[in-house]
Design brief:
By secondary structure, the chain is of the alpha/beta class. The protein is built from 14 helices and 14 strands. It has an eight-stranded mixed β-sheet, with helices on both faces.
């Protein structure tokens, strides 16, 4: 039965391409080289976003260069390592913050489950205490990259990228953090903020900002003006919720799928979870595919209480995503298939 499910999964992959869900311009240029900065402890959308990046890498649309974690939980790095291993990429560098919000989790302990004395989801990294510092990983990744080649995706607190900006020259690179960003990064895709009224609240304080106001202020103030930033705000993820039907139906090719188990542990089977983090990933890897619109250019600032303000400015550094009802349908459909697509190894067995 399991082999039959995998055969169906392979057929599904082919049918998704026929339907146009495969990125039509994937072979038109080099894969997007991505660094994923995540607070993968609380909400499960971080897990979905990481799975989505692996699918995009399987499709040769991106290369996942590193993952850095912006909240403190000793199981966060092992969980990321387990997901990376599950998708056939066990050697992706993982870095952790040492100075940010500590957070409990409803799903990270999945990584400690064992069967017959072996981890259900294999991984080598046993504790975040054993992982390198996030800024070290970021500096190494940027230093080794081609100029203007990296896209950074930040879907949590800004602790790591703010610390990167303030990092001095060292043995890794003679460039400061700001200089490395200016030379190596072509885009920052951020899930944070609220630039329009949320349920008639014109002063909505979004969680990624509210839970780390100081670091988000440092990011907004110090990020170079010549490196574009695109923000996916609270309303985008709310509008494009991940369908519970996908959790019920689309992961059956692999009993005990780590993504499905994390989703169920976090919010159960009867909830369509907003896809905040996934939208930043989708735009970062497929910016030209008309999933989203973009605001006019401007400058984002973060106020003392965590409110994000967007001030229009010609040739400004910042823009935020917009999404029409028709685009929302396409976005949800793309997210569903990109999250649930079988890993290449699973489909090939």
């Amino acid at each position: 039965m399991r082999d039959q499910l995998k055969m169906l999964a392979v057929a599904a992959c082919c049918s998704w391409a026929v339907l146009g869900l495969h990125h039509s311009s994937a072979t038109a240029g080099d894969p997007v080289r991505v660094v994923f900065d995540t607070d993968i402890t609380g909400d499960v959308d971080d897990v979905l976003a990481l799975a989505m990046l692996h699918t995009l890498a399987d499709r040769e649309e991106c290369v996942l260069e590193a993952v850095t974690i912006s909240k403190i939980n000793p199981l966060a790095a092992p969980f990321v390592d387990a997901v990376n291993t599950y998708y056939g990429r066990p050697d992706i560098p993982i870095g952790v913050t040492r100075d940010a919000q500590r957070r409990d989790s409803k799903y990270l302990d999945i990584v400690e489950q064992k069967e017959d004395g072996q981890f259900r989801y294999p991984h080598d990294l046993l504790s975040g205490d054993d992982a390198p510092d996030a800024v070290t990983v970021l500096r190494k990744t940027l230093a080794n990259a081609e100029d203007n080649s990296l896209v950074l995706i930040q879907v949590g607190l800004a602790a790591n990228l703010a610390d990167l900006l303030e990092s001095p020259a060292d043995d890794i690179s003679s460039l400061t953090g700001v200089e490395l960003v200016r030379q190596k990064v072509k885009l920052l895709s951020v899930m944070a903020g609220a630039f329009r009224a949320v349920r008639n609240n014109t002063h909505f304080l979004e969680a990624n900002v509210r839970n780390g106001i100081g670091s988000m202020q440092r990011l907004a103030d110090q990020w170079p003006d010549d490196v574009p930033v695109v923000w996916s705000d609270f309303l985008i993820g709310i509008a494009a919720a991940y369908p519970r039907e996908s959790i019920k139906r689309d992961f059956e090719y692999e009993p005990g799928h780590i993504v499905k188990e994390a989703y169920l542990a976090y919010c159960g089977p009867e909830h369509d979870r907003p896809t905040w983090d996934l939208t930043s990933v989708l735009y970062a890897v497929r910016p030209e595919d008309d999933y989203f619109g973009l605001s006019e250019t401007g400058k984002v600032s973060v106020e003392k209480d965590g409110f994000t303000r967007f001030d229009p400015k010609p040739n400004g550094r910042d823009r935020y995503l917009t999404m029409s009802p028709k685009q929302t349908i396409r976005v949800v459909e793309a997210l569903r298939y990109l999250v649930s697509q079988p890993p290449l190894e699973a489909a090939a067995d």
